[in-house]
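tokens incoming
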């Protein structure tokens, strides 16, 4: 996309030369004179796309206050009616899917198919949340006391602080916000400073829907620095839930800050995901699953495949094929439909990739293909395949780039142990036609990850299931299934319709 086309796209989405970084619904808070600005950069060209003025702590306070005011009314709206507003948000996303998807591609460099897919994921989340709004079920239970009834109900929690990673600049927010909204909670979004434009465009579009429904303060946006606005947000006792998606380093810090005020945290952090391929596997399927998992989004998904464990009997010819596939992957402008590998997000990511390649060599790994940055402009690197040992320290780290470590095994027990030995626990997969191996992988002593797939790669989860991972991935669950419970408070109610007041456990207290 050339500079003029990019400018046209931004103006269609309402993004001017310098946009405000603090918003209460469709209302931009006045820009502060001399405020720092954040520049969004197109990672494909390295050129600046637009600037936004940064939010400060005083503006965050106003946004939180507006969310509290909105909460006082929004929580009284029946959940299915809240679902109706979310349905209209889904319609708005549908109407702007093409422009928003292009903006995602422009700002973070994923292929256009993936940029559009990301917005589709947000639309799917809206649809799912509409259904959920009629299914916020509580249990009822039998009381031990005569003429008593007990049940649980789920109440709205309060304004939710949503911190998002750069790599899903639209959908990570939607995983949270669509569900939080039907649960009765206003949302305050602090996006990554590496992808503020997508956040601004999404926020503006959906705030129009909230405003038309009579709830201008339902959505807030704060584009601010971690050190002041981020810190103020996570320490703010008016936000009962902070949902944070990003690195383990960030999640560890946010978790401690929120725990110190006894708030709730929902964490979606880094992954280090493995695919096991056994001797019975359909290798054509495996090859496609591995290539997309390891190289899709240039390895910048939390669920990207980072480790590949091949049975020794199939390993060598399969590695040869993989090398050929890797060397044929088209790298280039992600707007161009013929390219499969876009850029990394910025120069820092390229430097981290190059550092990891140095570590691989120093730790005895063999780079079979890749291992280099591609000459500029833009932040492109070669997809990289490494023959590695499972216990190399670098293999246990998440490098957010297309690096795949390959190792071989002879006993499935070892492959499963290696799958589980890293600190992260997000996604995992086995390719097998063996019923026994598949069930072994899915058994209580199999994969320890939040996602365990058979004959499907590690990335590309559907929204209907609960999404998230264990250990250092943070333990949170978002999107489908009963994830809505994270955004609500549980209330146990006991009703006495009799004429006596029996105490539980047979206790007597006669006055
Ligand atoms: P990051 O941790 O650098 O930043 C994530 C967000 O945290 C950003 O909005 C950032 O501004 C914010 N942040 C950082 N310090 C903060 C503080 N002190 N207070 C408040 N906010 C703070 O991550 P990133 O580079 O944007 O994203 C890549 C990482 O995200 C990878 O580790 C990836 O695996 C992970 N990720 C996880 C999931 C998941 O669902 N598990 C999804 C997407 C990305």
């Amino acid at each position: 996309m050339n500079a003029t086309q990019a400018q046209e796209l931004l103006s269609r989405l309402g993004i001017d030369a310098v946009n405000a970084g603090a918003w209460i619904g469709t209302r931009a808070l006045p820009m502060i004179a001399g405020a720092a600005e954040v520049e969004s950069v197109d990672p494909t060209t390295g050129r600046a796309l637009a600037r936004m003025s940064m939010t400060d702590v005083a503006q965050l306070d106003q946004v939180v206050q507006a969310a509290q005011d909105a909460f006082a009314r929004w929580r009284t709206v029946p959940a299915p009616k809240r679902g109706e507003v979310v349905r209209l948000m889904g319609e708005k996303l549908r109407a702007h899917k093409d422009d928003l998807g292009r903006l995602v591609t422009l700002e973070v460099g994923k292929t256009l198919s993936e940029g559009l897919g990301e917005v589709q994921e947000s639309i799917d989340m809206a649809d799912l949340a509409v259904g959920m709004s009629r299914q916020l079920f509580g249990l009822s239970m039998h009381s031990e006391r005569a003429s008593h009834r007990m049940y649980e109900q789920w109440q709205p929690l309060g304004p939710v602080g949503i911190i998002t990673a750069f790599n899903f600049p639209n959908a990570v927010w939607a995983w949270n916000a669509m569900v939080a909204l039907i649960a009765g909670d206003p949302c305050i979004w602090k996006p990554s400073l590496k992808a503020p434009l997508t956040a601004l465009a999404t926020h503006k579009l959906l705030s129009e829907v909230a405003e038309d429904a009579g709830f201008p303060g339902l959505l807030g946006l704060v584009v601010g620095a971690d050190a002041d606005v981020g810190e103020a947000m996570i320490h703010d006792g008016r936000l009962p839930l902070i949902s944070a998606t990003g690195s383990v380093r960030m999640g560890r810090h946010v978790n401690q800050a929120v725990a110190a005020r006894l708030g709730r945290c929902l964490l979606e952090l880094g992954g280090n995901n493995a695919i096991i391929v056994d001797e019975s596997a359909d290798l054509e399927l495996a090859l496609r699953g591995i290539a997309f998992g390891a190289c899709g989004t240039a390895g910048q998904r939390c669920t990207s495949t980072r480790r590949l464990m091949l049975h020794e009997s199939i390993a060598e010819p399969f590695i040869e094929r993989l090398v050929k596939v890797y060397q044929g992957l088209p790298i280039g402008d992600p707007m161009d439909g013929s390219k499969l590998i876009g850029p990394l997000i910025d120069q820092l990511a390229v430097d981290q990739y190059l550092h990891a390649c140095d570590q691989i060599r120093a730790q005895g790994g063999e780079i079979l293909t890749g291992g280099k940055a591609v000459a500029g402009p833009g932040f492109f690197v070669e997809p990289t395949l490494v023959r590695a040992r499972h216990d190399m320290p670098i293999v246990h780290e998440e490098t957010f780039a297309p690096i795949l470590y390959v190792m071989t095994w002879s006993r499935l027990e070892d492959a499963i142990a290696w799958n589980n030995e890293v600190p992260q626990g997000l996604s995992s997969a086995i390719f097998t036609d063996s019923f026994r191996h598949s069930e072994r992988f899915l058994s209580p002593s199999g994969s320890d990850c939040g996602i365990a797939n058979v004959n499907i790669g590690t990335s590309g989860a559907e929204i209907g299931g609960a999404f998230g991972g264990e250990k250092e991935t943070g333990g949170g669950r978002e999107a489908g299934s009963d994830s809505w419970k994270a955004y609500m408070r549980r209330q146990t109610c006991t009703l006495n319709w009799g004429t006596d007041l029996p105490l539980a456990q047979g206790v007597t207290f006669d006055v």
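note: The radius of gyration is 24 Å.
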